[in-house]
Design a protein that fits this description.
alpha/beta; about 50% helix; about 280 residues; 8 strands
């Protein structure tokens, strides 16, 4: 799959247009005109990216669909938690190993650690990928603030580390991340997590939310045996340092509202629809 960041820029613009106008079910020509493409080229671009038509995508933007997805996810999540991360039912999901930093390393804020980083195209726009010799330590997306903002956001998490720009080192990881999401299994990826014990526990729980499913902050807290800690769980979800691989985008409000996302609400909706389309295709 050839991924171009400019493709996602057009898709995101279309998503924002659909989000504002889905109530009157806009025609294809109206959506295409909004992104300055012909109907033919827009339809082809959208199908290549999302795997579904723009008309089908509109349903992912409705509150009713989000609520239905939440309801359907209960049994899936129960089965996944009971079976653990190696559940056979997660054929096309992400398989990772987690290597948390020691308390001493966490306190040192990355002192003495060399981190290679690079900017790359992805299905969800340009991303910043960062790795240490032990594995992936950061994945974020370039937004309105550009590359400088994305890099600054990452540096705040590892203030004492030595950052070295090196796309040559990071590009092989990128290929594994998104090809894996399309259903190809390879050896597990290793994630190096820098966070409190509570945050890491929440991030590990996120890995049990299968591709194509969603959960609520309240349900996630309950799975962690902390039913009263939904707000604290939400804060930990928001601190996730490795987008997409640790799927914080799969957590929505119990009322069905998709809600905010560190890298933009439109990108969160794009990820959910992209995954749902691939999950449906795998089942059919």
């Amino acid at each position: 799959m050839q991924v171009r960041s400019e493709d996602y820029a057009r898709i995101e613009k279309a998503i924002l247009f659909l989000e504002e106008n889905y109530r009157h079910q806009p025609e294809l020509r109206e959506i295409a005109a909004n992104v300055h493409l012909s109907e033919f080229h827009f339809q082809r671009l959208f199908r290549r990216w999302a795997g579904i038509s723009p008309k089908r995508f509109i349903q992912f933007l409705t509150l009713e669909h989000a609520k239905r997805l939440l309801g359907e996810s209960h049994s899936v999540l129960d089965a996944t938690y009971d079976a653990g991360l190696s559940s056979p039912g997660r054929l096309h999901d992400l398989f990772v190993n987690i290597e948390a930093m020691t308390p001493g390393e966490f306190k040192a804020a990355g002192a003495g650690v060399a981190i290679h980083y690079g900017f790359h195209p992805s299905p969800f726009g340009e991303c910043l990928l960062a790795v240490t010799e032990r594995g992936i330590c950061g994945l974020g997306f370039v937004g309105a603030g550009g590359r400088a903002r994305a890099l600054r956001d990452f540096q705040e998490r590892w203030p004492e580390a030595r950052l070295e720009p090196s796309s040559r080192v990071t590009v092989p990881y990128l290929d594994s991340i998104f090809r894996r999401a399309n259903g190809n299994r390879r050896s597990p990826l290793t994630l190096v997590l820098e966070g409190t014990n509570f945050q890491i526990k929440v991030w590990e729980a996120l890995l049990r939310v299968p591709m194509g499913a969603v959960t609520s902050y309240e349900d996630l807290a309950a799975k962690l045996s902390m039913p009263r800690a939904a707000r604290a769980v939400g804060a930990a979800v928001g601190k996730n340092p490795i987008a997409f691989l640790i799927p914080c985008h799969r957590v929505i409000h119990k009322a069905g509202v998709i809600g905010h996302y560190h890298w933009g609400a439109a990108r969160k909706k794009a990820m959910l629809a992209w995954e749902s389309a691939r999950t449906t295709a795998t089942r059919n």
